[in-house]
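ok so i was messing around last nite and threw this chain in just to see what happens. nothing serious, just curious
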Amino acid sequence: MSVLKTYRRPNNVWWWRKAAYRSFVLRELSAFFIFAYALVLLQGLYYMTRGEKDYEQWRIALSHPASLTFHAVVLIFVVIHSVTWFQVAPKTMPTLRWHGVPVPQARITLAGLTLACVGNVAVLLIAAFWGGWQ
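result:
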């Protein structure tokens, strides 16, 4: 009588070997950091409802080196998330044609990233002009 052998998955980082898997895992990991940052912002809203003193203490806490490090890591993951998201978008949409010629996916990705950057700069300029920097 033969003995059945069960499959055992290797206990290593097999996903790191293929670029598509790496991109997927980093994009999913970036969502965790973006969620954590959203919690930081919600905490700020909570302290804002408690009064000016509590809100100022929260803002002072954000200037701590650990908080600045956290914000730098979140910024890196936001950039990774944005770039990989714009790389996935042309793959999931119907073929875009310009004068009957298909537009390359790299151009669609570049256009999306460019528009996102222009939109962010525009929001910053509007905020600086309209609200002023405090």
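not much to say yet. The chain has one domain: 15-130.
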